[in-house]
Design a protein that fits this description.
single chain; mainly alpha; Rna Polymerase Sigma Factor, Chain: A; Arc Repressor Mutant, subunit A; 2 domains; two-stranded antiparallel ribbon; 9 helices
Length: 202
């Protein structure tokens, strides 16, 4: 059975520009979250997501249904762009300091930015003290993920944050299924160990 993404790509190959626009709308937010987690740079994630879609647009004629799912192909392109970005980055200023925090429990399943000051009067969960604790915890988790070796960090993000299947992750990272599962389990153990001092806060 042809999945919707693959069907849209086939329509785009035949000249249906709206099919491509729909693909972008379907995957824009998850792709930005994926890139932000990989690079530790949410400010630059939008640009890298846009570059991913530009490359997909230009390479549409090379897309072959059945060789790989569209989503797998998209994440391979994004992964390579992330690696290039990290390789070329001269500064390690990975976190923006402002008055926002991330709401990981939005109704559509995506993270969204919450303005602490604007939200505080109406939502006690975002009072300054609570919001600051959450922001510090979020940064601690991000730091811990960022400190994982690349071979463990990538599969962990793809599985536990992006929700991809083991088979999809194996295709993206070009690993055997058993290796993928082993690295994810190892990454979870390493992350848990790094976060031991903060487990009461989680």
């Amino acid at each position: 059975m042809v999945e919707l993404d693959d069907e849209l790509m086939l329509r785009f190959q035949k000249g249906d520009e709206e099919a491509f626009n729909l693909l972008v709308r379907r995957h824009h937010k998850p792709l930005i979250n994926f890139i932000a987690r990989f690079t530790g740079d949410r400010d630059n994630a939008e640009d890298l997501a846009q570059e991913t879609f530009i490359r997909i647009y230009k390479a549409v004629d090379r897309y072959k249904q059945g060789r790989a799912k569209f989503k797998t192909w998209m994440y391979i392109i994004a992964k390579n762009l992330c690696k290039n970005e990290l390789r070329n980055r001269s500064r390690r200023d990975r976190y923006r300091v402002d008055n926002t925090t991330m709401n990981q429990h939005s109704t559509d399943g995506d993270s969204e930015e919450i303005d602490i000051i604007a939200s505080a009067p109406a939502n006690s969960a975002y009072q300054p003290e609570v919001a600051l604790q959450r922001k510090e915890l979020n940064k601690t988790i991000q730091d811990a993920i960022g400190e994982l070796p690349e071979q463990y960090r990538y599969p962990l993000i793809l599985r536990d944050i992006q929700g991809l299947s083991y088979d999809e992750i194996s295709d993206i990272l070009e690993l055997r299924s058993g290796t993928t599962k082993s690295r994810i389990n190892r990454a979870r153990i390493m992350l848990k160990d790094k976060l031991k001092p903060y487990m009461e806060m989680i």
